[in-house]
């Protein structure tokens, strides 16, 4: 068995190491899927002495953090924001490493630019005093209100991460504890983000600035718990970064670390069955391969794992359960290689209607393609010359849309025209005559490539009824030795959360 001590931590005090033993030394473990949760779990288990094999459906590792390379352009197909750098330091610190051992970071300035569709434009920057002046310009007293809001956000982040994220609480009895009541005092455990933000800011644009990060959680202001005000501490106080080469550099770093620890990786092997055998499991693939294991961890889509890879009597949740969940949005993505520059766009750019309620309604209340979308533009070539040929720009547009939305070539083409028109009208960037490479990705692609339930881009949304212990179990109640990791489990959606999920799942294996 492998153990680790608090003295080994390099960041965040004793949070960087296990609290005890992981009883998997010498065991064979197969991890299905290589998203960030799977890659993280693999590293922790291999470090504890297990023989770990990661079996990936697609041609490259990384799950949704795939990379598209074509005609000299390199696109991050999935996550593109590097937030919460402390989590990555903590992860690599567990293994005696630092992120800089694998990749370099650039802090973005501005963090992002916002174009409001009434012609207004604003940059959020690393300097808090500048941001306070911007807020004050919209609403008298909003600068001081931002200070108060961020004080609350920082408190929520520090308490929430230490006692409710890094400390796993998968069962109801884990919350019936005097420490929980003590630590949760002052946290916004009830209520929604819309009400919380409006307590500090009246101006709708300031409310939008404080709420845009909810998209990363797969929610909307009226369905996301106010607890997630902690994301503003992440945004304003911790900074927005870019790893050289894009988020794919993080995937490569985790794979390299895993190989140093002895993890084996297999690609192009779609798993079709997780079958029990005497004393363990047989993980079978579409191409006739079979991987034997003492334990199995699934980082594949949770619903797909249960509904497609297990027999009915081994499933924890019914089909009705999965159909009744609230799913995070899917996305319409348009990857573009463009001649020339794309001023005035920044590395991260948001284009927002002055009232975005209708767009959220088309995602959660009345699913349909939006007429007046809120969307995100990413231009990594503003920061990184390696992602586009000389004299060209690398750009993708991401529009959150409802999961399970009808997705046809005709609808995509119609929406493409709407998006290109909207970009030109609201940012003064005309792209049509300069596009030299183009590829779209949408609902059907998320379902086909990632076996994603209803084509969601992220998984289950963080609603009050789908947060903390109300998310699916990380340890199967029906199959002894089967575990789950990734965004469906706690702590939930987002690259940092999936890294933390990997540690929690590793600590659960073999219990």
TrEMBL record:
GO molecular function, one term: oxidoreductase activity
Keyword Nucleus: no
Keyword Oxidoreductase: yes
GO BP: any one term: carotenoid biosynthetic process
Keywords for the protein's UniProt record, in alphabetical order: Carotenoid biosynthesis, Oxidoreductase
Short name of any one Pfam family annotated for the protein: Amino_oxidase
Region annotated Disordered, chain positions: 1-21
InterPro entries referenced in this protein's UniProt entry, alphabetically: Amino_oxidase, Carotenoid/retinoid_OxRdtase, FAD/NAD-bd_sf
Taxonomy, superkingdom: Archaea
Pathway assigned in UniProt: Carotenoid biosynthesis
Amine oxidase domain: residues covered: 37-509
Entry-linked Gene3D superfamilies: FAD/NAD(P)-binding domain (3.50.50.60)
Biased composition (Basic and acidic residues): 8-20
NCBIfam families: crtI_fam
Name of the featured protein: Phytoene desaturase
